[in-house]
Amino acid sequence: MERTVTVVPEDGLHARPASKFVETANEYDSEITVAANGDEPVNAASMLAVTGLGVKSGEDVVLAADGPDEEAAIDALEDVLTTPEDEYE
Amino acid sequence: MSETLDGVGVTPLSGLGNARWYRPGEHPDPEDVTAADPETERERFDEARATAREELETERERTAERVGEEEAAVFDAHLQFLDDPQITDGVEDAIDDGAAAEAGVARSFDAAIEQFEGMEGMMAERADDMRDIRDRLLRILSGGERIDLAELPEGTVLLAERLTPSDTAQLDPERVAGFATMTGGRTSHAAIFARSLGIPAVVGVGDALAEIEEGADVAVDAENDAVIVDPDEETRERVATEREVDVRAERVETADGREVEVAANLGTSAELEGADAQGADGVGLYRTEFLFLDRESPPDEDEQVETYAEALDAFPEGRVVVRTLDVGGDKPVPYLDLPEEENPFLGNRGIRRSLGDDGDLFETQLRALLRAAAEGAGTLSVMFPLVATVEELDAALERVDEIASDLDEAGVDYAVPELGVMVETPAAALMADEFAARVDFLSIGTNDLAQYVMAAARENDAVAHLHDPRHPPVLRAIDRAVEAAHDNDAWIGMCGEMAGDPELTELLVGLGLDELSMSAVTIPDVKAQVEEIDTADARDVADRALAASTKGDVRRILDQES
């Protein structure tokens, strides 16, 4: 399944939001990818790939997951991307 | 036949020993390795990763112990990349296509490095981290010997193209006679660590260093900015004689009784002990960047309180001058996403960021400082970097007031520290009277002041001759600031490299500085100098230097005195 999400945290997909995103992606068994600006989707469980996208706050990304827990994974990742950084645990 | 190579000495120390090359990036060409079957190559890759992980964990622990958690954080980033699926998938794909593990590692990392090199600021820094991990894996795969920097044989002079701060942190001052590198400058992190650890070091020697052979007899004469191969008997004796310097634990005064405070510049808790051992009266520049660098998120308020209080407790009778966060285009901080600037030294840095983009960080830091002022034993002073306008200073002072009221309302223990301004811009030197009227003290950062007064970048070798505090315009800027401070009942110190040069102590005392702050290792020399000085003679030297028209004239005036 796929879902388009607008990135909220001020840093975009860098620094803490990126670590949080990658950490979350690693918690699920499904294959998860994230794509930005119409580029090739990349592995959501890779800090390198995710920070390499260069996504800034306010930009859209496309999340795609395939596997037994795909829906939960996408929900959790959407949650990370739509939470302002200062509200992290 | 002895041969002398010129570099930049970063410690006033010298050492003699056997050359040992450290070449973490050397390995056979990965594409030349013949692959066995994919399964064997995959096993080789997994084993190399396991070895790399062990090495990194050992180094991380050692760095945390010897230098501090902040510096150790760089290893966390390395460990993370080691297991990154983008990298590992890339390696495994290459192996499936028939590549050897070496070629797989090289291709996969190189693709990632290329991707990051094209990016901005901190991402480009990451490319360096990835190069380090790539080279580590390739060395392990080729069965290359790992030089454990903590276990070098006694009397080693380490030679390298460059040393990272974490490399330097591994060195054991008891065993290492010194090190020399091709790249780097006086203010690089490796140089700063060498000074903290008291290791003789000459950096920026250039390609000539590569001609020194493994095992050669080498003297590192950092006092004279030189590396000497096969030194003659006379040089050996000069270098090998441990300089006898008496550490003066007590405060010193000039021969005619004027007290001059001699303090240490540092950036981590690990350096406090060394500063105390060299007889520092206190800390004249606590660089807080190190608390913020090499980590994924900023230190929180409590962590900062602990760090500042620790420094105050180390000098219960003294003063600790903390500089608020001073970052900009030339000091990458991962979570700040600093923009690449056309001209970082003239860009958004120091107080400009604290009052703008980094307002939240600034507020947290000030809260931590006010709390630490009440908690720690010594006297806390706080100064703001790169102030150019009175408006900036007023805004910063207003922040302090607001935070004090907040803490008051919350019933939290706090104290308002002494407040000061760094004189680093010509603007601050010209407006020093206005600044001094508003704060308790001024502190002159001569590295930046010389850079801006002379319009000559610190990092640019081509204009290094201009970047020298002996130029009369720099001396006149200093003089103006000192006079403005004293006219307005403020004390004034100096915390640039100039303060730690014993040849300039008389001049600086003559100019009227109340405090000199420097790398710990130069404190005993400067304290010894202070005790020899007669204030009236020193004033005379300063007057003549201020009247000189050229740097050459200033040098001649100083030479007559020594």
TrEMBL record, chain B:
Give positions of region: Disordered.
1-68
MF (Gene Ontology)? kinase activity; metal ion binding; phosphoenolpyruvate-protein phosphotransferase activity
| The keyword Cytoplasm appears for this protein | yes
Source species, domain of life: Archaea
Q: Would the keyword Transmembrane be found if you checked this record's keyword annotation?
A: no
Domain PEP-utilising enzyme C-terminal, first and last residues per copy: 246-534
Active site positions, chain numbering = 189 (tele-phosphohistidine intermediate), 495 (proton donor)
Where on this chain does phosphoenolpyruvate bind?
287, 323, 447-448, 458
Q: Which Pfam families match?
A: PEP-utilisers_N (PF05524), PEP-utilizers (PF00391), PEP-utilizers_C (PF02896)
Q: Which cofactor does it need?
A: Mg(2+)
- State the reactions this protein catalyses: L-histidyl-[protein] + phosphoenolpyruvate = N(pros)-phospho-L-histidyl-[protein] + pyruvate
The PEP-utilising enzyme mobile domain is annotated at 152-224
InterPro entries given in the database record? PEP-util_enz_mobile_dom (IPR008279), PEP-utilizing_PTS_enzyme (IPR050499), PEP_util_C (IPR000121), PEP_util_CS (IPR023151), Phosphohistidine_dom_sf (IPR036637), PTS_EI (IPR024692), PTS_EI-like (IPR006318), PTS_EIN (IPR008731)
Keyword annotations for this protein?
Cytoplasm, Kinase, Magnesium, Metal-binding, Phosphotransferase system, Sugar transport, Transferase, Transport
Query: Sorted alphabetically, which PANTHER family does this protein's record hold?
Result: PHOSPHOENOLPYRUVATE-PROTEIN PHOSPHOTRANSFERASE (PTHR46244:SF3)
Q: Which family does the record claim for this protein?
A: Belongs to the PEP-utilizing enzyme family.
Summary of the function given for this chain in its UniProt record: General (non sugar-specific) component of the phosphoenolpyruvate-dependent sugar phosphotransferase system (sugar PTS). This major carbohydrate active-transport system catalyzes the phosphorylation of incoming sugar substrates concomitantly with their translocation across the cell membrane. Enzyme I transfers the phosphoryl group from phosphoenolpyruvate (PEP) to the phosphoryl carrier protein (HPr).
Protein name listed in UniProt: Phosphoenolpyruvate-protein phosphotransferase
